[in-house]
Structure formats: structure tokens, C-alpha cells
Design brief:
With 159 residues, the chain is of the alpha/beta class. 51% of the residues lie in helices and 11% in strands.
Length: 159
């Protein structure tokens, strides 16, 4: 944490992350809260979700959401809620999406890649992938939750 605080002091005035649109998917803990506040102090716009349904510290998520960034996380999310939160964190709406992803599990990146694949399939066949076809429970839940959002995710992120 001292290193992050030093970065704020040394680099804050120059705003090196100005224009960065960062989606984060890390454990939503006090330490992550300090990271988020540092990214913002350095000029970034930040949207965040948790990478784990059990690790969110709700008081931290609430404080960051109130003071700093869009946060989509709470302790004890269901798998479907987890993918909903991840989808919210990567889909910034009509203004585009993130230009940087910070994560430790790869789910935000997976969601974007699967969204692009689903959109390409839709363009070819007029159908979105069947949510029951993916092999893992997690990817099935991702498809079920995000099926409606795949088109907007691709449109908003890949331009």
C-alpha cells in the first residue's frame, strides 16, 4: 500500500492514466479499494466487479461505489449474479467499453471473447449460441446471464 500512496503523490498531478477506461475484476477488498482509488487519482475512469462470489468486503464495495467508481459486487453473489456483475463491469454503454482490463481470473476477458463469438454467430445464422451447450457450469451461467447482452457488449467494446 505504501507504493500505491507514493504513486499518487508522485504521479497524481501529471494524470498519467487520463483517458484510461479500466474494468477491474479482482477480489473486492480493502487493498483493492486502495488500488481503485489510486487508479482514479492518476486519472482513470474505473468500473469494477469482484472475481469471486465470496471474497467481497461489502463495506469496501459500498465506500468505493459511493465515492469513486462504479462497483458491481457483493458478498455471496449467486453464479448468475456474478456473471451479471461482470457483464455490467465490461459494458460501459453507448460510449464504448474499457481500454484496459485488470483481472486475476480471466472472466471479464472470457465474457468479451464469448460475446464477440456469439455476435459473429448471430450475424451468420441469426441465432445466438444455446446456453445449455457450454461444457462448464460457469460458462453455461455466463451464456444464460449474458445472452441478451452479448450484442451490446460487442457493439460497445469492439469499436
Amino acid at each position: 500500500m505504501p507504493g500505491l500512496m507514493s504513486c499518487r503523490s508522485e504521479f497524481g498531478p501529471s494524470q498519467p492514466f487520463k483517458g484510461a477506461r479500466i474494468t477491474g475484476s479482482l477480489h473486492m477488498t480493502i487493498q483493492t479499494g486502495v488500488l481503485i482509488e489510486t487508479l482514479i487519482a492518476l486519472g482513470a475512469e474505473v468500473w469494477w466487479c469482484s472475481c469471486n462470489i465470496f471474497s467481497t468486503q461489502d463495506h469496501v464495495a459500498a465506500a468505493i461505489a459511493r465515492d469513486s467508481a462504479a462497483v458491481f459486487a457483493w458478498k455471496g453473489e449467486t453464479l448468475q449474479e456474478y456473471w451479471w456483475c461482470t457483464e455490467r463491469a465490461v459494458d460501459w454503454g453507448p460510449d464504448g467499453g474499457p481500454n484496459l482490463i485488470v483481472e486475476d481470473g480471466g472472466d471479464a476477458t472470457l465474457l468479451i471473447h464469448e460475446g464477440v463469438k456469439a455476435e459473429e454467430e448471430f450475424e451468420k445464422t441469426g441465432k445466438l449460441p444455446d446456453p445449455s451447450s457450454p461444457i462448464t457450469l460457469s460458462s453455461r451461467s455466463c451464456y444464460r446471464t449474458s445472452r441478451k447482452g452479448f450484442r451490446s457488449i460487442r457493439r460497445n467494446i469492439t469499436r
